[in-house]
Amino acid sequence: MVWTSELIVHDEAIRANTAHFAAATGGRLMAVLKADAFGHGAIAHSVLEAGAASLGVTSIDEALALRAGGVSAPILSWLNPVDADFAAAVLADVDLAVASPVLLHAVARAASLVRRRARVHLHVDVGMARDGSPVEAWPALCTIARELEHLGSLHVVGIMGHMSCADQPGHPQNQRERLLFANAVRTARRRGLAPSVAHLAATAATVTGVGAGFGLHRIGAGLFGIDPSGTSRELRPALSLTTHVVTSREVATGTGIGYGLDHVADRRTHLALLPLGYGDGLPRAASERAGVLVRGRRRPLVGRFSMDMVVVDTGEDEVAPGEPVTVFGPGAHGEPTVADWAGWADTIEHEIVTRVGSRVARVHRTSTSEMSGTTKTAETTGPHRGEAVDA
Ligand SMILES: *Cc1c(COP(=O)(O)O)cnc(C)c1O
Question: What burial letters (b/e) apply to 281-317, b meaning 16+ CB within 10 Å?
Answer without folding.
Answer: bbbeebbeebbbbbeeeebebbbbbbeebbbbbbeee
